[in-house]
Design a protein that fits this description.
The protein is α/β, with parallel strands linked by helices and about 375 residues long. It has one domain: 3-Layer(aba) Sandwich (Alkaline Phosphatase, subunit A), CATH 3.40.720. The strands form two sheets. Strands 1, 5, 6, 7, 8, 9, 10, 11 and 12 form a nine-stranded mixed β-sheet that branches. Strands 2-4-3 form a three-stranded antiparallel β-sheet, with no helix packed on it.
């Protein structure tokens, strides 16, 4: 057993593309739902009821089971003031907690710096996926970013230096126009070698791992399995991050089939991950946050839905006080924001709750102020 084993750990699953809140937690008894969704609607008979007004998408049965066990918080109406319907800008706001200007540090990058101020562990933060999410990027903060743990890919392990160069170039192209090329160069030079030094350590995680849980073959499932492997390897990692395939939740067309498949994959992946940790007696110090950059418009567009606001997030874990937090946004026409659900729950309050009550950090400098915290985790 290492000293780090029972440090609290945050796992983040980003649902990239803008998940449709209305077809995720469905207001199945509200006639305005059917009025606004003449095509892209979930049959009320198929909804998995939470209460007499809302219920889970029928593809979310594995998550309903976690809800029934009291381990899931549903954060309703989550968003931020003056919502932006651009994928890039809205996700940037969620990543940096800067709704009014372009931020130069990710919220989790700041958190990792506070968790490990002396940079004693280059694996305090680990991302699974191509490139590095802005949430994890902060100058001087090492974060390992891995494409596939078994062959350890993108930034950390290398079939060839070309892969690493490509990932760094991608990061530079995305963010240099916004925060300046000099800062990007400084970030890469400060963190690149640190991230690489974690590769050999990370590569040991699969060798230590055995489980009876069979994950799916989809990307989210494989990354959640990789996250389990790293957590169970007891490497002192405190923040583990992954993203659903790029813009996969951007359901402008053919939404019903796509959205149901996505939630079936995500629900199974998260459920299997949770089962895996339970099997290894390693779930008590892990909390999972699932979020998306915005919701979709209330009225469908014929076969899908366009970018909106007023989304939904989930927090899951043994330490989570299951329940509904925040109000479900009104569907009344005079309560909509240009055809969108209003947010009534600032995402920075959810972040602050996780930072202070779970990771034991001072949230104010990380999220940029004081925001109302929620009670889905008890105060330490």
């Amino acid at each position: 057993m290492t000293d780090h084993q029972k440090d609290n750990v945050l796992v983040v699953l980003q649902l990239s593309g803008g998940n449709d809140a209305l077809n995720t937690i469905v207001p199945y008894t509200n006639p305005l739902y059917m009025d606004n969704r003449p095509v892209v609607w979930i049959d009320p008979e198929q909804v998995l009821p939470i209460n007499d007004s809302i219920g889970f998408n029928p593809a979310m049965t594995p998550l309903q089971e976690l809800w029934d066990e009291g381990n899931m918080a549903i954060i309703q109406g989550i968003g931020y003031p003056n919502p932006n319907r651009s994928h890039f800008r809205s996700m940037d706001i969620w990543h940096t907690c800067e709704p009014d200007k372009v931020g130069d540090e990710g919220w989790l990058g700041r958190a990792i710096r506070d968790l490990d101020p002396k940079q004693e562990n280059v694996l305090t933060g680990v991302n699974f996926g191509r490139g590095l999410p802005r949430a994890l990027a902060a100058p001087g903060v090492p974060v390992a970013s891995v494409g596939d743990l078994e062959t350890y890919g993108v930034l950390t392990g290398i079939e060839g230096a070309d892969q690493r160069s490509e990932a760094l170039e991608l990061f530079s192209k995305m963010y240099a126009p916004l925060i300046g090329r000099s800062q990007i160069k400084a970030y890469i030079s400060q963190t690149g070698s640190d991230a690489l030094s974690g590769a050999d350590i990370l590569s040991t995680a699969p060798q230590k791992y055995a489980s009876t849980v069979s994950y799916g073959s989809d990307t989210v499932a494989q990354y959640m399995r990789n996250i389990a492997q790293v957590h169970l390897a007891e490497l002192g990692t405190r923040v583990l991050y992954t993203t659903a395939p790029y813009n996969s939740f951007d359901t402008h067309a053919s939404e019903l089939g796509t959205h149901n498949r996505l939630w079936r994959d995500v629900s199974n992946a998260v459920s299997h991950f949770y089962q895996d940790l339970k099997e290894h007696d390693a779930s008590d110090n892990v909390v999972i946050l699932m979020f998306t950059e915005f919701g979709r418009r209330v009225h469908d567009n014929g076969s899908g839905t366009d970018h909106g606001s007023g989304g939904i997030a989930f927090v899951i874990g043994d330490a989570v006080q299951g329940g509904l937090y925040g109000e479900y946004p009104s569907l009344e026409a005079n309560q909509l924001l240009e055809g969108d659900l209003h947010y009534n729950n600032d995402f920075r309050g959810t972040y602050a709750t996780l930072l202070e009550r779970w990771l034991g950090l001072d949230a104010k400098p990380i999220v940029g102020g004081s925001f109302e915290q929620l009670d889905f985790i008890s105060s330490p």
